[in-house]
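=== RUN LOG ===
request id: a7f3
mode: sequence -> structure
chains: 1
length: 143
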Amino acid sequence: MKVFFDSSVLLAFLAGQDDRAYKMVKEVELGLIEGYINDIVVGEVIYGYLRLTTKLSSLRIRQLLAKRDRRLIDLLEDVRSLLELFGSLPTNVNVREVIDVMSEYGLMPADAIIALTCKKNEIEVIATLDTDFKRIPWLKVVP
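=== RESULT ===
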């Protein structure tokens, strides 16, 4: 089964906050389900993980990354191992599509791009803790 993973599930997994997230990521790791992400999710997970683990502001994280701070580089390596479990799908969308999906289903831009990524790649299941995706008729929300 192909499942798109939203950043909410991956961040909950990294934070150790949700048994359902842990179970689903482990199923990807064991090859029981095919997990997919896109560049939107990659950016959200990396940024969220840095904020979660360091408790630093965006500005301070940028400053430390510019200095190639060893602690942050190590954190990036930690999150890389998780993200590399997933297949990466292109976000091959255009402005009109994004705005149409935002308008029709009341989504923020990143979520509209994720929904369109799923549609274009014929993925019908999304692992998310975000209830907004329940408004998308072509997606079944799990867990």
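=== NOTES ===
The mean pLDDT is 96.
Strands lie at 2-5, 34-38, 87-89, 125-127, 140-142.
=== END ===
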